[in-house]
Amino acid sequence: MNPDALSFLRRHYAELGPFQVEFRLRTEDDWPLTLDYWFGAPGWRDGGHTFDLVGVDATGGLYCLWRYPELGDRAPPVVFLGSEGDGIAVIAGDAASLVEALAQGYWWFASLGRFSRDEENLLQPAFDAFREQAAAFLARPLRSPESIVEAGQAQHPNFAAFVARTLEHCATATAGDADGDGGEDQSNNGEDDEE
What we know:
Blueprint: H1 5-16, E1 24-25, H2 31-39, E2 50-56, E3 62-67, E4 78-81, E5 89-92, H3 95-102, E6 106-109, E7 114-117, H4 119-122, H5 127-138, H6 145-155, H7 159-178
């Protein structure tokens, strides 16, 4: 992966503006809190996994770089977390592979769980300039969206399985806290709640 792929996206997004209808670069200062909300609790942080927000789709789905403990020095894959819990997958092996898909007018269609291309994306005023600059930046033949996904998923763990385990972990931790397992005294010391 070209380590500058995310910088390329940010720079060209700033220069050209939105080049797709279904993909918007985005950053958030309180990003971990967004994931706490998505997973239902901060328990997703327990296993040493981290996420960097790359962008969002039109429904609020999240494009993220996923750093998991076994990743080592390799480039993190791009994963997708659908706003309604759909489309969860490794969608590209690295940020350069995401640039490759975006440069062809593709975006992750959460309800279908695959890349899709919409003519509206191809008609965006900034798209042609982005496509040309991305092709020069990548300096390689562009792969099909299916090849991008297959290669990314072959190189990294099953992200949907990780999310399912993490959601279960967060739900269990939250249920334990709600049941009073947090060690706090839940009694009213014999006092009657009535006035």
